[in-house]
């Protein structure tokens, strides 16, 4: 079986969620089966394993609907894409697409780093369900990264194709020294963007109720957004890092009281796994995906309720509670690993990449 993996969504520079998912899945798949990576920019190779690769047009190119004409020259048996938007017109190979989440149907503000025409198409695409159905049904099978998203896909009847959950995971940020003792300082960590649905305002307002705590906001931030958040809670102790290295991130998590997240929607929640793996408790909004990841180890508060968030943080002050949550978090994080995810994905790819699978595609 000749396997090709679409790596054109890998970021130049720092990974985002889909970029990290791609890089780790490719690395683990390659340990189990030979593969060729598709890239659209040579700089992407800096964030990918040293494997065979081919250069094709970019995923936001006008040529994307017909990218299969370029790919089929490689004569693959099956192609895996970590997104659902890979063009498929004229393909002669099996195709497995990925749908990570349905966030942008409720929160239609697109990522700010996309070109203006793509941002417009993004908004139009998410006004109705039929474009999503059309893309997914052009694949042979579909994967998603959580049971939460799989349930939403089924609820909205987004595809007739077989659907498999291939769970996301997280980088190992070092070896945790377990069991951990409760930090003496009140340090809260937030790792994520400042998109409206992330609910960062709730975190900031909760800090006004926690004068002995400080909130470290790690991601890159515009001066305007920084000023806006500062004005929301003038007395809150906010520390803006405007981007951190993996080493600095690991150090902050390893010494934090808790990781906090107030998002109203997510496809997964990689920072939760990263924190729990280091034995750091997580205090997060009560949404289905965070229940799926955090289980009984996490603490939950109603989305948009800073007072309830503050109460959950205070609950960690109870004798032995922080240590209990820390140990439970480390155990919960063991469920998520790239090795298991790659094994599950390879089963799907082998099913689609066989001669029988290709024959089934031609009959459709």
TrEMBL record:
CDD domains assigned to the protein according to its UniProt record, in alphabetical order: GT4_MtfB-like
Q: What are the TM regions of this chain, as residue ranges?
A: none
Tell me a Gene Ontology molecular-function term this record carries: glycosyltransferase activity
List the InterPro entries: Glyco_trans_4-like_N
Which ranges of the sequence are coiled-coil?
A: none
- Domain Glycosyltransferase subfamily 4-like N-terminal residue range list: 16-171
Keywords, ordered alphabetically: Glycosyltransferase, Transferase
Q: Glycosyltransferase: present as a keyword of the record?
A: yes
Q: Which Pfam families match?
A: Glyco_trans_1_4 (PF13692), Glyco_transf_4 (PF13439)
Q: Does the keyword Acetylation apply?
A: no
What is the official name of this protein in its record? Glycosyltransferase family 1 protein
Gene source species: Agromyces tardus
């Amino acid at each position: 079986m000749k396997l090709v993996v679409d790596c054109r969504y890998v970021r130049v520079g720092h990974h985002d969620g889909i970029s990290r998912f791609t890089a780790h899945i490719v690395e683990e798949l390659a340990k189990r089966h030979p593969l060729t990576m598709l890239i659209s920019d040579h700089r992407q190779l800096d964030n990918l394993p040293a494997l065979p690769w081919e250069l094709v047009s970019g995923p936001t190119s006008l040529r994307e609907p017909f990218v299969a004409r370029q790919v089929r020259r490689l004569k693959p048996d099956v192609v895996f894409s970590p997104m659902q938007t890979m063009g498929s017109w004229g393909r002669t190979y099996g195709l497995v697409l990925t749908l990570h989440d349905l966030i942008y149907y409720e929160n239609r503000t697109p990522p700010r780093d996309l070109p203006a025409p793509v941002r417009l198409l993004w908004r139009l695409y998410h006004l109705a369900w039929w474009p999503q159905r059309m893309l997914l049904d052009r694949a042979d099978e579909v994967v998603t990264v959580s049971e939460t998203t799989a349930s939403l896909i089924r609820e909205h009847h987004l595809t007739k194709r077989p659907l498999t959950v291939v769970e996301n995971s997280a980088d190992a940020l070092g070896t945790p020294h377990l069991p951990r003792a409760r930090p003496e300082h009140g340090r809260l960590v937030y790792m994520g963007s400042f998109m409206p649905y992330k609910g960062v305002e709730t975190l900031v307002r909760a800090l006004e109720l926690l004068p002995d705590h400080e909130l470290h906001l790690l991601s890159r931030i515009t001066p305007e957004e920084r000023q806006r958040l500062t004005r929301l809670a003038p007395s809150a102790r906010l520390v803006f890092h405007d981007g951190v290295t993996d080493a600095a991130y690991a150090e902050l998590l390893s010494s934090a009281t808790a990781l906090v997240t107030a998002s109203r929607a997510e496809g997964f929640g990689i920072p939760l796994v990263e924190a729990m793996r280091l034995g750091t408790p997580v205090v997060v909004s009560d949404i289905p995906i965070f229940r799926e990841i955090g289980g009984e180890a996490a603490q939950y508060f109603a989305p948009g309720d800073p007072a309830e968030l503050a109460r959950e943080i205070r609950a960690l002050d109870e004798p032995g509670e922080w240590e209990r949550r820390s140990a439970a978090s480390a155990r919960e994080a063991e469920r998520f690993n790239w090795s298991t995810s790659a094994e599950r994905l390879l089963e799907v790819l082998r099913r689609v990449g066989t001669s029988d699978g290709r024959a089934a595609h031609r009959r459709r």
